User: What shape does this take?
Amino acid sequence: MFTDVAETVASHLDTAQSLTVITGAGVSAPSGVPTFRGPQGLWKNHRPEQLATPEAFASDPEMVWEWYNWRRELVAECQPNAAHRILAKWSSAAIPATIITQNVDGLHERAGTTGVIRFHGSIWELRCWKECDAGVIAWRNTAVPLDPLPPRCPYCNELARPGVVWFGESIPTDVLTKSLQATRCDVFLTIGTSAVVHPAASLLHSAKQHGAFTSEINLEGTPSSGDVDLAIQGSADTVLVEIDRLRSK
Ligand code: OAD
Assistant: This one.
């Protein structure tokens, strides 16, 4: 079904000395994790500014934590899909792929990818809301459900916050630096993202400037579709399985 276009990507991968992939919610969609935009998306029934901003948390931390606790419960029931598994395989290949993800669900790691660059953080990490000395460094918390809710900082007992990047917040400098370095690659794939949230969506342009062959895999067209060398319409899991099948190494 995708064989022609998948073959093109596979042949670029066969000769590439470096591969970088950026993933979005569409990669976790086949696992049952809701996306943000679109008819079934999380932003259909919730306004981002009421749940995913520092202002929202300051005015109603209980409501924000209820929402993150619900998402943690939902993701805990989901399993990585074939897209996560293929990317995990590629990330440990002789020429390892660098995986940058906007997803906070941890499914790449659960599929076995190490060194994931988590562009928007992780719902499995918490930080001190008051930024106390020890609590500025995120700690892992995988309790489902969270107890107590809202959780507290173990160092100063103030409120803890989700270890994610909210709207209006900056991407941590080290994460941005590593991501930009990874755009110096031979092949750059953008998979399952609506490509409307920056700076994540801008990484594609950086890769193009460095001369990468670029391809998008998405169920539908996005603002990036016209900018990539090859836009493939299809589900991330199906298309990646096909590309992987056609790779010669
Ligand atoms: P979106 O929900 O904006 O977009 C998901 C994309 O995945 C859409 O373009 C869909 O067409 C596509 N898609 C859905 N199912 C797919 C499948 N099976 N295979 C391939 N593509 C599929 O999610 P993101 O682009 O990840 O940020 O959103 C970017 C950021 O906006 C998120 O990280 C989050 C959100 O607000 C923050 O919370 C800071």
User: Anything to note?
Assistant: The pocket of 2'-O-acetyl adenosine-5-diphosphoribose is lined by residues 24-26, 29-30, 35-38, 41, 48, 52, 102, 120, 165, 167, 192-194, 197, 217-220, 222, 235-236 (CB under 6 Å). The chain has eleven helices and nine strands. Residues 34-77+121-164 form a domain with the SIR2/SIRT2 'Small Domain' fold (CATH 3.30.1600.10). Strands lie at 19-23, 97-101, 117-118, 121-128, 139-140, 160-164, 187-191, 213-218, 230-233.
